[in-house]
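BUG: 3D viewer hangs when loading the predicted structure for this chain

Environment: internal workstation, default settings.
Expected: structure renders.
Actual: progress bar stalls at 90%.

Input used:
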Amino acid sequence: MATGLPLFPGRSDIDQLIKIFQRRGTPNPHSNWHGVDRLPHYNPEFPKWPQRRITDFVPMEALGCTNAADLLTCLLQYDPDRRIVCRQALQHYYFSEEEHIGNTSQEIPNGNMI
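Structure tokens produced before the viewer hung:
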């Protein structure tokens, strides 16, 4: 929503996965998702992309602050045990920053308000 464009613009299921893996890195049981190799359709031969920072593909100008980047990173964790849950997300520092309190709409690059 920050850029007005999808984060992972896939055209099919597999294209969607590739876009996610290219930007967030290929899931790896040793670094970013313990147990992924036990999932029924896990394929260790899938291309390996390194994990990238959120700000590599969502500009900091669009996010507005480092707390927004941190919140998005927390929300996009592969491993459910590492992913922030809704109650934790609502307590994130992002929501206690003064510039966000009371600001219910924001203009996105295409000129629309969110």
